[in-house]
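Ticket #4471: structure export looks truncated?
Reporter: QA, pipeline team
Priority: medium

Steps to reproduce: submit the single chain below to the structure queue and open the exported record.
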Amino acid sequence: MPSMCWWTSFIQSLIRGYAMTELASPTSFSMPDIGKSPVVLTARRLMRHRSFRIGLVLLLIVVLAAVLAPWITNGKPNATSVRMRFQPPSLEHLFGTDNFGRDLWTRVLYGAQVSLWIGLTVAVLSAILGAIIGIAAAWYRRFDTLLMRVMDALMAFPAILLAIGISAALGPHLSSVIIALTSAYIPRCARIVRASALVLRETDYVDAARLAGASDLRIITRHILPNCLAPLLVTLTFVFAYAILAEATLSFLGIGTPPPHASWGSIVAQGRDYSVDAWWIMLFPGIAITISALAINLIGDGLRDVLDPRLKMEG
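Actual output as written to the record:
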């Protein structure tokens, strides 16, 4: 029962925190919207945003293709055929075949599973760990200097170079790719959350909660974290897109997703020696990478415009 009460209070604080954000924008509500929940209002505003709609449709296409891959392909991304090497796109092989006779339609769709899973895992882990570090640095000021100097040291390296170094040190495994990319993007999330938490810890309602004897955990979960979710969610979407691009880069360099897993980056790398005579080997995985990253960035733009009314008003 105590745990249920804690979660109920936490969910209520999430809604209350977002409602305060909504009220900050003079254009957030119209008369017919009065009485509707913030979730419904947010969904409506997102669906009115052109960039969000376009990005959502594109991402749904990629996700559906990845999920349905076992049923709309031959289901064998690593099946080779010497007789079918370098076949151009046709009805039998929609994206053609590569230098080993493998069907590229199958490999690109199975590669989508790997790229989307790694990208989403990296984004979620970066957001969770970044939120913990950011809030800890903002709330417990004695740890602020230490934590932020570590984050600054990580941010001193370009994210892709840091990921390359960590991935090369850990070896070619899927877990190594996830650890490398998460380590590269945690500092971005941590700094975003810390900046928001520093402002929130000085607000009147947080001071009132302190005077009322609320514990640090209660204040953080009911007042600080809910009000940090909007910028964190926007950052998460961009990390998702960057992680897909970074995973493709690592695989292209041979230190990312290892065989036998299909990866967009490794497919492009295999086709670079045949870019003139077998152009389709590089073209289709490259298009898949572009569409996925573009879709997620468009969704992120929509979330930023809707969830950050101050930024929208300044624009």
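Status: closed, not a bug. The export was complete when the record was re-opened. Leaving a note from the reviewer for reference: The radius of gyration is 23 Å.
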